[in-house]
Amino acid sequence: MEWYLAKFSQDGGTGRPAGRQARSSQKHMFFVYILQSLQSGEFYKGLTDNIDRRINEHLNGKVNSTRLRLPLKLVHVEICITRGQARKMEKFFKSGYGREIIKEIIAPQ
User: Fold this and answer.
1) What percent of the chain has a predicted confidence (pLDDT) above 90?
2) Domains of the chain
């Protein structure tokens, strides 16, 4: 599955804040993601602050909990403002009702 995310930069593209005050205004995002094993159909739910790095780790077999489930596809991503919000979303997707929502998300339209 092809996917992309827009990357926003408030620092003119340098990747670093200009000073202390720039750090406080810099936005940090967290991502809750759902992967599906093409082998078994099982889902893996996780959260990260660097979606590109984390998905590459999963796809290259560097994550113990998913390396035996390869190949994987990314089926859903939620963007959260705080780590706490992302953690709640991840826990929701791991709940019984959350698993039902995942089925609805990936159901063919």
Assistant:
1) 70
2) 23-106 (3.40.1440.10)
